[in-house]
Amino acid sequence: MSDFLQSLTEYTASLEQRLSALESALSVLQTQWTMAQTKEKEQEAIIASLAAKNSMLQSCISAQEERIAALEKAFADGEWVEIPEEIPAEAVEEPIAEEPIVEEPIVEEPIAEEPIVDEPIVEDSIVEEPIAEEPVADEEKVVAEETVAPKANLYGKPVDDIKQAIALGDRFLFQRELFRQNVELMQRTFADINALHSFNEAIAYLDRHFDWDKESNTYALFLTALHRRFS
């Protein structure tokens, strides 16, 4: 009877060890299952975020295409429109921060100096040529030449309307930087310039009505169109 009890006790201990091993394996499987579910949720969140960004970019592209089509139609019809809005900042991805570049110190090697050899100085005889005297032009002729507008071939083909000498992108540039987004003022100025008779009259008109920076590139670009109008 005691042998039977001892065998039963040993068998029970063996079953308990197997049960403990099975519980450990089950615990590992549950941990792996939880991690897999977490990764799946993270991937779903990433996919949803990418889908939202893709939808936003598609909307921005469609809006820009509509604006471009409207601008092209307005330009073809000779109409003036406001400057289109910029792409919303939410649709533009943030720039990736670049790692700082560590510059290694540059070791300059000493340059071997060559010996300086004194060469004999040979004096050349200087022959003075007579200076040709230019004829003195009459004051009236000089004043007339200064007031003449530059030649047409320097600025392009002459036009009858100053708007014909201004590209669509330059119109928006003039509207923003010279006329402060006032489309009516810009159109009225173009009409007044077309009614003038010379380049100098146009410059005088602009000096009376505007205080523009004459050193700016935009002003120089506007003068180019003005030259074509009065070439």
Averaging pLDDT over every residue, what do you get?
A: 75
End-to-end C-alpha gap: 130 Å
Q: What's the total number of strands?
A: 0
Q: Roughly what percent helix?
A: 55-70%
Described by strand count, sense and barrel closure, the largest sheet is: none
Tally of contiguous helical segments: 6
Question: Topology, pairings included?
Answer:
Elements: H1 2-77, H2 139-147, H3 168-177, H4 183-194, H5 199-209, H6 217-229
Structure, explained:
The protein has 231 residues and is mainly alpha-helical.
TL;DR of this structure?
This protein is 57% helix and 0% strand. The chain is mainly α.
List the main descriptive attributes of the protein structure presented here.
231 residues
